[in-house]
Amino acid sequence: MRRYFARKLLTYSLTFIAAVTVDWAIPRLMPGNPIDDLLARIGTRCNTREQCDAISSYFYNVFGLHKPLWVQYLTFWKALFQGNLGISVMSFPEPVSTLIKNAIPYTLGLLVPAILLSFWAGNKVGALAARRKILDNTVLPLSYTLTATPYQWLAMVLAWTFAVTWRFFPISGGYDPLRTPSWSFGFAGDLLYHWFLPFASLFLVQFGGWAIGMRNMIIYELESDYAHYLEALGAPRKLVRKYAYRNALLPQISGLALAIGAIVGGALVTEIVFGYPGVGSLILSAINNKDYFAIQGIFLFIIVGVLIANFIVDIMYVIIDPRTRIGMQGGS
Amino acid sequence: MTRSDQKHDGLATGASTAAVASGAAGGAAVDVPSPKVRTINRRFEFLYFAIRNNKLILGLSIVIICFLIAIIGPLLAKYSPFQYTTSYWSPPSSRHWFGTTQDGRDVYAQFAAGMRSAFLIGTIGGVIASVVAMLVGFTAGYRAGIVDEILSMVTNIFLVIPAFAVLLVIAGFLHNVSIPVEGLLVGLLSWPWAARALRAQTFSLVARDFIGMARLSAQNSWRIIFREIAPNMSSYLFMMFILLFGGAILISATIDFIGLGPQFTFTLGKMMNEAQTNSGLLLGMWWWFIPPGIAITAIVGGLYIMNVGLDEVFNPRLREM
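The joint structure predicted for all components is written out below.
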């Protein structure tokens, strides 16, 4: 067990180091000069060459761009460990970390229920559909369509149908702008009301993938020796299916680890469609405002989030699969 | 079921004896005739099952229709995608088949151009990702040992980092990416799962006798990989390419939707982005954002269904008999 987790942790720390390095290197490798962009943005007017040079060298010093690269790299790490992701340009002088902190609850509130519920429902429905002609013929085509749908498009279709045409749900925002956030039932209900459509959109796209995966795995498991053996012993179909389900769940959990990155991407574009005040909308405004510090900070935040989620899935896998536990405690 | 199982075993041994024969001959091809006849038979057999597989036919038809739209569609467009016409915000009509945008551009022209971009991105991204996956997967699976350890670690790192997040940073700093550059970036970031799968496949093949024979005859490693290992998983490689192709279209649609895609070419993601930023949703302009989404869903879904069909064609165990 310790070896398994040590290995996982090594991979994740290397991934983190690689991500930080990429995050640090990309702005420095890209064509164009961030300082010039910044000057153009804040609209400094300089009349003479000397004035311009003075202003830009001031900014070079502020951002430490005149120092050797390795010093810049170390400074970047140091700032990171102090939780300093830089100052946002678009909402100056707010630090980037504060912007992210304000957006996190909305993104997590969308993501976590959508991932868990779609994983649960998709697996259940997929297992039911396997080897049942009528259900299979309806669930399978629907699932293939859903899983091929771009997240943002399903979100747009839902918004257009339920928020623009029928007006059942609000089209944008995290809560009614006329209300002030408070710990009350009224406000909680309003949050839920705004949360529902983005959640449903995320849920549906993921649902398809899990249903297909589980349906195929169950068919595969029902073909295996232990299932045939149980059937030959006269075990009820329900029991055989229950065992098949447990075995089929394991590859689905590894699949969850692989899918997390794409799901996070889906959540971000879904937020953009619904103007939901999470990390996705933050990214959009950072890009539109060329707020490089914010883009860099959000990138790191996403990576760390995905790493943590992967680690949780790893732990879940060990808890669910008794074989890995035994194998890791010294068995072969 | 038992009959198909027997057939499968027969196929597998037939393939490996053929490979052993050519491997033992050291490339001199002494007794080529019999393996050649076998491969032709095999190919015909796949064709036999291919034209009888509904899923494959359905998926392939959808993809071919989309491809034809991508090829012929732009030729039929009466306007350029960027051209402003005098009719604003108009629903589909005989003059504007898919209607116009709020500033009077022809949606059909944008859609047709977007279809072309989608296939271009899919091809570039799919090819590049497949090549990287093959290089990494074959090397790791064939070499084993420390090379495998390092390559697997690199693969695992790339596997965890979400491709779209890296694309986000890169495209955010690049002021304008072209379609080929976007395809290249998508390809360079979406290979890890394929490499991991190929490594596992290679591992299982390397343990077979005919690879051992090829190794004994002192053949060059890359020759063994491409003459002995790769042909034995050609169906697998083809299916992998299809999935990478579809994946590249989906990832690029996400990037384009955020507004980081190409600025001077139309893509399906960019259409959705423009519809979103110009309140196409609030104005109820369904003709603007519905077509690109349907197109992406059709291409990617068609590819997935085709993949399932191919799986059944290549893998006798899955055939419904």
